[in-house]
């Protein structure tokens, strides 16, 4: 979802500010806000790992509260119309669906967030499944994608994503991997091992 379909910084900039304002007010965090670039650079990771990087040395209580606040403020932002899909995502997904392709999301995010983005941005109905680590309690995206493939008896598929976890999940499940080089959250070397790189979501139609 993040960095592949959804341009997360269009939502997260305001969410980031609100999270740390609230944590500071509640006495769970001191000092200036961490750079939002640090949070954006962690997208695609499991939440428990994100906060250890963004707030090193923070308490368990602070990290747990940050989880709650992040989801709350993300859903409030989405409901208020914040956050956009990457260019051509919706039209491309609709065309793929019209061609009879089965479409799925596999995300390390929370269930309510992943489903919330899809619902609020009007693309939920295009997917045969929205899989998240938050819903299935998986320890890695490799495990999440394996579950998805098994649930739907899928023998061949393409994994499309922007992070090393996507490449790993695809390769470890025997899939072709398309790396989204247009995403800005990860580093280009994260896509090493992908079978092909795209710089525009519409390229999927040709592939």
Automatic annotation (TrEMBL):
Domain of life according to the entry: Bacteria
Xref: InterPro entries: HAD-like_hydrolase_sf, HAD-like_sf, HAD_2, HAD_sf, PGP-like_dom2
Pfam families in alphabetical order: HAD_2 (PF13419)
Name listed for the protein in its UniProt record: HAD hydrolase-like protein
Organism encoding this protein: Paenibacillus spongiae
């Amino acid at each position: 979802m993040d960095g592949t379909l959804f341009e997360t910084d269009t939502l997260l900039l305001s969410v980031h500010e609100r999270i740390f304002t609230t944590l500071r007010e509640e006495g769970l965090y001191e000092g200036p806000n961490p750079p939002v670039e640090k949070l954006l650079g962690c997208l695609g990771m499991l939440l428990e790992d994100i906060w250890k990087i963004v707030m090193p040395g923070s308490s368990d209580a602070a990290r747990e509260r940050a989880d709650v606040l992040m989801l709350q403020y993300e859903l409030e932002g989405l409901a208020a119309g914040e956050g956009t899909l990457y260019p051509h995502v919706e039209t491309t997904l609709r065309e793929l669906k019209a061609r009879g392709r089965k479409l799925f999301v596999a995300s390390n995010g929370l269930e309510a967030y992943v489903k919330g983005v899809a619902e609020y941005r009007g693309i939920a109905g295009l997917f045969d499944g929205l899989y998240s680590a938050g819903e299935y309690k998986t320890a890695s995206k490799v495990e999440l994608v394996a579950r998805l493939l098994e649930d739907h008896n899928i023998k061949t598929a393409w994994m499309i994503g922007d992070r090393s976890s996507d490449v790993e999940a695809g390769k470890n499940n025997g899939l072709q991997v398309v790396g989204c080089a247009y995403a800005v959250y990860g580093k280009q070397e994260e896509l090493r091992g992908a079978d092909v790189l795209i710089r525009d979501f519409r390229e999927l139609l040709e592939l």
